[in-house]
Design goal:
Layout (H helix, E strand, L loop, with lengths): L1 H5 L10 H7 L1 E3 L5 E3 L5 H9 L5 H19 L2 E4 L3 H14 L12 E5 L27 H8 L3 E6 L3 H4 L9 E2 L3 E2 L14 H8 L5 E6 L5 H6 L3 E4 L19 E6 L2 H11 L8 H5 L21 E5 L9 H16 L3 E6 L4 H6 L2 H20 L8 H10 L11 H8 L3 H25 L4 E5 L4 H7 L3 E9 L2 E8 L5 H15 L13
Parallel strand pairs: 4-5, 4-8, 11-12, 11-13
Antiparallel strand pairs: 1-2, 3-5, 6-7, 8-10, 9-10, 9-14, 13-15, 14-15
Helix pairs in contact: 4-5, 14-16, 14-17, 15-16
Keywords: Signal
InterPro entries: Amidase_dom, AS_sf
Protein name: Amidase domain-containing protein
Amino acid sequence: MASEKVLGFSSLQLLCLILVSFSSFLTTTSGKRFSIKEATIYDIQLAFRRNQLTSRQLVEFYQKQIQIQNPVLKGVLELNPDALAQADRADHERKVKPSGSLPWLHGIPTLLKDNIATKDKLNTTAGSYALLCSVVPRDAGVVTRLRKAGAIILGKATLSEWSHFRSDQAPSGWNARGGQGKNPYTLDDPCGSSSGSAISAAANLAAVTLGTETDGSILCPSGFNSVVGIKPTVGLTSRAGVVPISPRQDSVGPICRTVSDAALVLETIAGIDTNDKATIKASKYIPKGGYAQFLKKDGLRGKRLGIVRIFYGFGTNTFLHQTSKQHFKTLRQKGAVLVDNLEMDNINEILSEPSENTALEFELKFSLNAYLKDLVASPVRNLADVIAFNKKHPKLEKLEYGQELLVIAEKIKGIGTWKQALLNMTRWSRNGFEKLMKINKLDAVVVPFSNFSPVLAIGGYPGIIVPAGYEKGAPFGICFGGLKGSEPKLIEIAYSFEQATMIRKPPPLRKLKP
């Protein structure tokens, strides 16, 4: 396929990193230089308006970055052969339409996690050969919104195969089609399952990216790769056309280098989609005027932030203790009220009891079967077919990693067990997180890393993670979680923290050897 050949350029086409760094600067008509690397959506749109940059130049820059870095990082699975044509169209529209009339994402190259369907020349495979050459009936709901906004679909990002629901033995960030994704800072674990989206955002392989989360799959890779990830309230963004695990927990969200970019992407993709009924109910949470209005440097002022000490483990991590102490000081200096030493009822049950896994196994089978049945064409039509395909092609799918999670989901029976799991999680959310938030009148809980993701996942609550530091070169993030529909507050908090600390730095330059 033409798109896969793009990722297989010869070594003669892989420029040295010095040249790459130089090529990230464009000489403008005024003689000044504009750097694409680390540029935000605001930066890019300003460069567009000043005729310092075109969408074609932007796409070509990211394609070159992918040619050079992807053989090692493996953050991108496929490039869109129509990306340059889309860029040319965006450049033309910018010339003929009134200045300032176009959406923020117009002409912006975007990478999508490879479980988000596109009705074009790109595959949608969840990283598995079992779905290679399948034909989707339509664009995913979020893709429809991106196209309407004029965004350029640059390609598909890699992921942990089947959103890390194939086997516990498979490494995080690995899939059969793309291989092992690598953290650009450490060249090891990128965390999953939206690993490729986070790798690509961090390494400047795209302007912005989209990921999906069932439990931790946006928050964890974002934290590991020093980028910003927003896991929205379930239903705030459409899941229609996304290879599913659980309609009850799945969510689509932005993974970007800055809070402002993430807010603009969320503003673009949030909204009602008749193909996903959950969006109708969740639409009540979408603020008039969008999310960019909450990018306030003083957004921490007056916010009540809860600290649940079980997530900090100070007794065993001196570095975390010192870093958290500094961040707590920053939060207070910016006007936040920290409510410390909180305990959350049911937290041990949430983190250790198998109800969530039981529910996900049950939901995967029926939601995936429905997705596969809806495909126009596909080598597999249900979960049993996927399992059989993997058995038939053990080397292709590297079956030594196993597929026990898929097998368990296929065999699962008994709706009573599933209903009991749901009752357990509903009780834990009501008597745990919701009670904690309401009794203490909190705007958010602040937690290091993505360890809070199970709490947010089982209740469909939103979270945002922001770069918080580096330990021996390895990035980590700080996560703010809130009740359903609290994205405006979370964006205020996260943006204010980001602007006060400005911790993020791009990955180190190094010679990349495949």
